[in-house]
Write a structure and sequence with these properties.
Strand content: 5-15%
Number of domains: 3
Number of helices: 14
CATH topology of the largest domain: Nucleotidyltransferase, domain 5
Distance between the termini: 55 Å
Largest sheet: 5 strands, mixed
Number of strands: 5
Structural class: alpha/beta
Helix content: 40-55%
CATH architecture of the largest domain: 2-Layer Sandwich
Strand order of the largest sheet: 3-2-1-4-5
Radius of gyration: 34 Å
CATH class of the largest domain: Alpha Beta
Order of helices and strands: HHHHHHHEEEHEEHHHHHH
Shape: elongated
């Protein structure tokens, strides 16, 4: 219940406190001044009495002197510990602070969590990268490639290529459900064979060529893919690819064709990675349909076509994958290439990049 107006505490500003004290010192009617300032008479008396006793005009700090559970030094140490150990739990952080500050009275993990929120440190999906990701040799290769890209590469038709594998269980790993209930997804009993999609994209031509193969990518299949791509492109081009095992042996090249590998551990320079992400996102949405999962496990439908259930699953997956290729457009390719070019200055400066 709200207190009556007469009992409610009124905070007197510093300016009004000085005006009351000045009126008191000059033997003026400070009670009348308090009434004009809408200050309760008792509050005005408290200001004057305090001035007579201590000579102070300013209001004292209210409340106790309980210190913060985490000092600025502790928060700084906490941020550094999280930067060095991103997988640490709140209990690990609490133990670290207890070891670093022996005289510290330990606080709750909720307090530590709030302190991290105040430093804009949030919980994220933890990624794993090799320790050679930002090695000096790798950064040197990135710099040389970035220089080539901004000089010789500017006048060439650049075609980036990469592969992605998938099966009928390819789906999002996050979903929604009522509180206390697990989010589950009903799928076919078997995931079937893996299917590999190999695609080539260009910032100038968009989706240049794509091909679906059963199983994984091999050197022979990649050489076949390149030959079909070269026959399709009617002008000189430079094929850029990652360092997958299937790409180690360069296929037969024409005089007007160039074959250049990307620096190791540099997927951010390959615009095909973003194209693959778009295709895979579309495929996940398609395969998440309940009716499609029923078709994938329909033995009667496979028998009616005179094929095995495994072949039936593979055909459905290939059909859905073909429909998802519309996710790669010319405008998207231009935007993905611009996104890759944002890393070029950092590569030239040989900065550590985690992307």
């Amino acid at each position: 219940m709200e207190a009556p107006a007469a009992q409610r505490r009124v905070a007197v500003s510093q300016q009004d406190r000085r005006r009351l004290v000045n009126a008191f010192v000059l033997n003026e009617d400070w009670l009348n001044l308090a009434e004009q300032l809408n200050i309760p008479r008792q509050s005005a008396r408290n200001v004057i009495v305090k001035f007579e006793r201590t000579g102070r005009v300013e209001a004292e700090k209210r409340g106790g002197n309980k210190p913060k559970a985490l000092s600025d030094e502790m928060i700084e140490a906490l941020v550094g510990f999280v930067a060095d150990t991103p997988a640490a739990t709140l209990q690990d952080m609490r133990r670290h602070l207890m070891q670093a500050f022996p005289d510290w009275q330990a606080c709750t993990i909720q307090t530590i969590s709030r302190a991290l929120d105040g430093q804009l440190i949030t919980v994220k999906l933890l990624r794993t990268i090799p320790n050679a990701w930002n090695a000096d040799r790798i950064k040197h290769e990135r710099r040389e490639f970035a220089k080539w890209l901004m000089t010789e590469g500017m006048g060439k038709l650049l075609v980036f290529c990469d592969e992605m594998g998938c099966n009928v269980w390819t789906a999002r790993t996050q979903g929604r459900a009522a509180e206390g209930v697990r989010a589950v997804r009903i799928v076919a009993n078997q995931r079937g064979r893996n299917v590999t999609m190999c695609l080539a994209v260009s910032p100038m031509r968009g989706l240049v060529y794509w091909k679906i193969v059963r199983g994984g990518m091999t050197r022979e299949l990649f050489a076949e893919f390149f030959a079909e791509l070269a026959a399709l492109v009617d002008e000189p081009f430079c094929l850029l690819h990652d360092n997958a095992r299937a790409h180690w042996d360069p296929p037969a090249m024409g005089e007007e064709q160039e074959y250049r590998p990307l620096p190791p551990y540099s997927p951010f320079l390959n615009m095909t990675e973003r194209a693959i992400a778009a295709v895979k996102a579309s495929l996940k949405r398609s395969l998440s349909r309940v009716e499609l999962q029923r078709q994938i496990g329909d033995r009667n439908a496979a028998a009616a076509l005179g094929i095995t259930l495994q072949e039936h699953r593979a055909r459905i997956l290939e059909r859905e994958l073909e429909d998802c290729m519309s996710a790669v457009t010319q405008l998207h390719c231009e935007a993905w290439h611009r996104e890759s070019l944002r890393y070029v200055p950092r590569c030239i400066a040989m900065e550590d990049i985690v992307a």
